[in-house]
Amino acid sequence: MNFVLPGIIASVVVTSTSSAAMLSFTSESAFNLATGAIGATQYTENFNDLDGYYLNPLSGTMGGVTWSASAFGGLFVGQVNSNAALSTALAVPLTIDFSGNDVRALSANFFGTNQGFSVVASFVKITLLDGTSHTGYINTSSSTAFLGFHSTDSAITRITISLPLAFGFAYPTVDNLSIAVIPAPSALALIGLAGFSRRRRR
Questions:
Q1: Where are the domains of the chain?
Q2: 5-17 tens-digit pLDDT
């Protein structure tokens, strides 16, 4: 893993904004622990059932959430090290919107690729709708570069991946897009009742 965030040493960083506080993770294991701690369930889109060019928007569903990807000129799904990955048809930013159940955390492998879907050295910038952003350097062997976000008090509804600097012609690319969803209050109540019922029957 070679995702280096300038000025960020720890795997967890708190970013305060006017609307929320974001926890940023460069460690997948730390992200998974934090997700479990808030009682969220993770769902992952690996794009394996997609291939080739797509018009805007390209959508899918997981965990009661609809994700919708778009980019100027359309989208392209290709193979990176034998794994399908979502990218753009042109060298422009990639935006993914989320609707439905609240997404309280998300993570993915973020990197840049060339026309042949080989990873290229680049600086990858991840921007959330509330203005939170992180920029990291990805080298040419880092299709597994990991970055995750947790929102402490509001849903994550949009993420944009861009390449402010790349060594060669490059396209923003994402794989293993994971979201963490907390059940709606009514579902949490049912879970609580089920647990209470189990305790009473012992």
A1: 12-201
A2: 333 323 434 343 3
Question: What CATH number belongs to 12-201?
Answer: 2.60.120.260
Contacts of 4 (CB under 8 A, 6+ apart): 136, 137
22-37 tens-digit pLDDT: 889 999 999 999 999 9
What DSSP assignment string belongs to 131-164? S-EEEEEE-TT-TT-EEEEEESSS---EEEEEEE
Contact, 174 vs 91, CB < 8 A?
no
Write the single-letter amino acid at 156. I
Secondary structure of residue 84 in the 3-state scheme: strand
Burial of 153 (0-12, 13-18, 19+ CB in 10 A): exposed
Q: What is the pLDDT of residues 113-164, one digit of tens each?
A: 999 999 999 999 999 988 888 898 888 778 888 999 998 888 999 999 999 9
Angle at 135 between CA 133 and CA 139, to 5 degrees: 155
Structure tokens at 179: 């979201």
State mean pLDDT over 78-89: 96
Q: Dihedral through CA 140, CA 105, CA 96, CA 114, nearest 10?
A: 0
Pairwise CA distance, residues 64 & 101, whole Å: 6
